[in-house]
Design goal:
The protein has 192 residues and is α/β, with parallel strands linked by helices. Helix content is 42%, strand content 19%. A 6-stranded parallel beta sheet has the order 3-2-1-4-5-6, with helices on both faces. Helix 6 links the parallel strand 5 and strand 6.
């Protein structure tokens, strides 16, 4: 399933949104690669903002597990949805917001791959969304679990690609007016 084409007059492909699932500081104790996840999610959020792609966040039981890590949210508009169910679609108001934004393709980042990310993707597919997992911006407590989940989802017509692959495809050309700013974000993310 292809990534939506970039229209001539806009940075953001129509119908595309970034959904960041449950990147909360409470998980830092159990996620071995949490620092790297935060860096990669921050890159995805900053790039989405740069290109005008809507960004939405979910938080798993925020009263107990806290809010999204501040470094990830950056200056992104406040579209945060609390949930108790594992799928992001269990969050009240999320699906309504996606419909209002006329979203049909989700870029998904966050954690945890075999639980909340997996169930979010299955629900998205069942609701006829196209899905791309940002493979470098999702993680799990056990990397083997994440590996098998991503393989399974790839067989279900889910794109599983690194963030930079997706965003360079959206830019399409080194002459794109956002190319320099994006390259700077990539350098900052890899030098942290």
């Amino acid at each position: 399933m292809p990534i939506p084409d970039l229209p001539e007059s806009s940075d953001a492909p129509p119908g595309l949104a970034l959904l960041v699932v449950d990147v909360q500081s409470a998980f830092a104790k159990v996620i071995p690669e949490m620092d790297e996840l935060v860096r990669r999610c921050r890159l995805a959020v900053q790039t989405a903002e740069l290109l005008g792609i809507p960004v939405l966040f979910t938080e798993q039981v925020p009263d107990k597990l806290g809010n999204t890590v501040p470094e990830v949210k950056g200056s992104s508009e406040e579209r945060v949805f609390a949930k108790t169910g594992f799928s992001a679609f269990a969050a009240e108001g999320l699906e309504k917001e996606l419909k209002e934004l006329e979203i049909h393709h989700l870029l998904i980042a966050g954690l945890e791959t075999p639980v909340c990310v997996y169930q979010t993707v299955l629900d998205a597919l069942a609701k006829d969304f196209e899905v791309t997992l940002l493979s470098d911006a999702i993680t799990a407590r056990r990397s083997d679990d994440a590996h098998w989940v991503m393989q399974s989802l790839a067989r279900q017509e889910v794109n599983v690609l690194p963030s930079e692959t997706i965003f360079y495809a959206i830019l399409g050309d080194a002459c794109h007016h956002s190319f320099g700013a994006f390259t700077k974000l990539v350098k900052e993310a890899t030098s942290s």
